[in-house]
Structure prediction request, 432 residues.
Amino acid sequence: MAHQPPRQTPALTIGRRTAGLRATQPFRPLPPPTGQPPYRLNLETVLGAERVAAITAAGRLALHIVGDTGGVKAPEPQQIVAMHMEDDFASADAAGRPAFFFHLGDVVYYYGEASEYYGQFYEPYSHYPVPIIAIPGNHDGDIQDPSVPSLAAFVENFCAPTPHHSSEAGDTARETMTQPNVYFTLEAPFLTVIGLYTNVPEHGRLDDTQIAWFHSELAAAPTDRALIVAMHHPIHSLDTHHGSSDYMGQILDAAIRETGRTPDAVFAAHVHNYQRFTRSTGGRDIPYIVAGGGGYWNLHYMTKDYGYPIPLPLAVPGTDVTLESYMDNRHGYMRLEVTPRSLTGDYYTVPRPQEPWGNPAVRLDSFTLDLRNHHLSSPTDAPPAPVPAPSTQGSTDASLTSDPSTPPVTPTGTTPEPSAKRPKGSRRKKSS
Prediction:
């Protein structure tokens, strides 16, 4: 079925921002799929039968998830995040090592150029030892040269018919990923991820073809495992740069109503920080997570409309969500672990570029969703969410301007616990 252009809906007021089509951010036509519908990627084709059998036998699947990683202007934050993600593989608990990295989009900045893939993707993850699967972000799909189709480089490096060493990979060993389309469903032990491509316009846009596919995949998703919907543009965000997307919220809610299926969690990026919301609806808790602090140099500060630091938890006025945790002045990443009974997320912050890169990652936030009753809990050993230091300049890069001598402080005045999961000798030295 040919892709249909998106319906031109009226602009939607979202807080102080307006969602609509900006002249500089038009909807970009999608490339042809490289695989067959319904565009499913089975993890066994990526990891191999033996590795998937081991995951199944262990009864748990671990993975990394974050977005907005491209270190286009300052590579240090991306490299620091990548180094600490690599340290997770030093764990003596083999079953707890991540099996893959699910990237939430904006792999490269600013126009998805093939020439940027080595410096912003292949080289920074040259020591990252497991596959990287990705949905595109707006910067991956935007174009500057009209002679180059939107997402051409993304398709070449993530949607190859067979794995191979691409010209963009240079001297690194990583091969291309074999996703069947720029939107697809990942099938894994204990987990299904429906990955959407929300295109280039601010707050996202889907064409009719992808919307119909999304409804079909949501309805077909197995009921015996966790179900995540991943997208680049966030449905909920209290930042001052992009804000929330009512449009994507309407897309998701319409799919839930039509199919009778509700995802267990919703992940997004686009906003360059970390936020975790809880939506309580229909007798269940749904985490809505923004994980966009994966390495792009300019972090996005949170609104000061509710005071700053924002008092937590915050029932967001005019919505059915509660802000549970956030971090807007340090980069970081999330580690997920899925079992037949639970979905657990731990978000770690990493040192700033002016701090010793070998300092341990710090667990900022932790949650567990019981997949049997769909209720959330926070482990008793998780530290309270740190309160970020007040900012002075809106969206100025917090990671480069904040006082490096001051660790994040919790509401009770204690310092969050560093991760005890890694030996220091496993990381690379800071480059000059």
Remarks:
- The two ends are 52 Å apart (CA to CA).
- Residues 12-426 form a domain with the Purple Acid Phosphatase; chain A, domain 2 fold (CATH 3.60.21.10).
- The chain has a mean pLDDT of 87.
